[in-house]
Amino acid sequence: MIPIRRILLPCDFSEFSRRALDRALILAGWYEAEITAIHVVPPLDSFPRPMHEPALREQILTELRQFLKPAEAAGVSVRTAILEGEVDGQIDEQARHLPADLVIMGTHGRGGFRRWVLGSVTEKVLRTSPCPVLTVRGTGDGPVLPAALERVLCPVDFSESSMNALQHALSIVEHAGGQLTALHVIEGYPEPLDLFELNVTEFMRHLEQSARERLRQAVPEEARHGGKLEEMVAVGKPWREILRIAQAQASGLIVIGVHGRNPAHVLLFGSTTNQVVRESVCPVLTIRTEAEKGA
Fold first, then answer.
1. CB-based contacts of 159: which residues, under 8 Å, 6+ apart?
2. Candidate from 129-138, 156-165, 260-269 with smallest mean pLDDT
3. Domain with 84 in it: what CATH number?
4. Taking the model in full, what pTM does it have?
5. Which of 49, 74, 95, 163 could serve as a FRET partner for 260 with CA atoms 20 to 30 Å apart?
6. What is the DSSP letter of 191?
């Protein structure tokens, strides 16, 4: 079981942050975790006068407390902090200082000093965070219910990072009493093939059978009890198949590992994770291996 004791929740009071708060409250309840909610502003002495720093800080703190009232109603322990500086830098610093087991944040935010748009603050946090990051893109009316996170999709390519992601997915499903789909996507052929000498249909069947067997071996036997686990193999472009299946199954959460080239050399983490985080309508939890953290 993966422990989650400290959740870091950056807030900018936008609708996306509110939806992130909803997910944070669900996970905090399941794991009996404490939430640290932070709001980051530019240096307070840069604001126009005549508003004085103490008054401005008190105004922001009042808004933060109002924003967090659902936590009080849910009985979840929350700490608050107002920080000054660059948003992504402060989030990263606080994640390391706590240390946080999980960062939960929206992919977009409201206008102002720094817009939280994917490709800016959120992307930087995803690239540098010392712990898993749950990004929330969707909006909607009404509160998010626990059932929204109970159907989990976890892509598995048998790399170290995807196996780590699978452990996190199993832990969430165990706490939620939900359903997990472990998905492996076969992308084309591993090497050039002579179609005149090989039965392609038989070859693809062999790849699928091999993938199913590896999935079976990857999942602990105890996780299979109660019919809460589905193993699935698909063929196609990985990110497209992940998003297609997530939509078809009405998944409430995608848990995906990050690996491949050094993330400093690519737009986000690599094409698959990049596309999934950008396009998914449901929250995406990204998991990195120790070797890739801070790369």
1. 257, 259
2. 260-269
3. 3.40.50.620
4. 0.87
5. 95
6. S
